[in-house]
Amino acid sequence: MTDLPQQPPTPPRATRSDARTNRARVLAAASEALAESANASLTSIAKRAGVGVGTLYRHFPTREALIVELYHQEIQKVIDLAHDLAATRPPLEALRAWFQEVARYGQLKYGVAEVIHAATNGGLDDEHYGPFLGAIGALLDAGAAEGTLKAGTDPEDVLLQLSVLWRIPPGPGAADRAARILDLVTDGLRVRT
Fold first, then answer.
1. What are 59-108's pLDDT values in tens digits?
2. DNA-binding region(s): which residue ranges (predicted)?
3. Residue 86 and residue 138: Cα distance in Å, rounded?
4. Are 119 and 77 found together in one domain?
5. What is the DSSP string of 71-122?
6. Radius of gyration of the chain from Cα atoms?
7. CA neighbours within 13 Å on the CB side: how many for 48?
8. Do both 140 and 89 map to the same domain?
9. Greater confidence, 84 or 19?
10. Whether 45 and 136 share a structural domain
11. Do 41 and 57 have their domain in common?
12. Other beta carbons less than 10 A from residue 142's beta carbon
């Protein structure tokens, strides 16, 4: 048997710029739509994004695929923000600003938590779990070093407290309720003089 010359592997095709733009528009529209209603249909998301349903399905073959991609995108933004805030603001202000972003994220997650939970095995196996705890730890460490936040606070304990934000139903009063809960969490972390 003769060995045929092997062909060099075909390099992967670059995604066209219009396809990248459409994908970004779908994700932005999904973020808005799901924050308003966990029951937003894929058709309504495609319409909001200004693309056809077929375009949406080419990027996200199922509702779950769209939700999980949106989750990965949003959670990475939240993680990155913690480090940016820790580097640019006083610790207590940075912590509070980050908590507010977590609350905003909680509104996105409300109603789709079951899909995210199933896709990420409940958190412990999720690739973002460790970095999310690291983000909390960076903010807590900065505050402890300054003397405004309690030293030795376990980031997992804070995450558990923050998880209540994902149980607040969207709608009137949701932002006020989240703010009150964040006041309670922040007050519990402060050093008492």
1. 999 988 898 888 888 888 889 999 999 999 999 999 999 998 888 776 66
2. 41-60
3. 7
4. yes
5. HHHHHHHHHHHHHHHHHHS-HHHHHHHHHHHHHHHHHHHTTTHHHHHHHTTT
6. 21
7. 17
8. yes
9. 84
10. no
11. yes
12. 21
Q: What are phi and psi of 153, to 5 degrees?
A: -70, 130
Q: Among 61, 77, 94, where does a domain finish? A: 61
Q: State the residue for tokens 């196996």.
A: 125
- The tokens describing 39, both together, are 């029951």
* For the chain, counts of helices (H) and of strands (E): 9, 0
Long-range contacts from 32-41, C-beta under 8 angstroms, 24+ separation: 34/67, 34/70, 34/108, 34/111, 34/112, 35/107, 35/108, 35/170, 36/170, 37/111, 37/170, 38/110, 38/111, 38/112, 38/170, 39/111
98, 139 Cβ separation under 8 angstroms:
yes
Tens digit of pLDDT for each residue in 102-149?
887 766 665 555 555 554 455 545 788 889 899 999 999 999 999 999
Q: What residues make up the domain containing 127?
A: 64-189
Instruction: Judge contact between 16 and 31, C-beta under 8 A.
Output: no
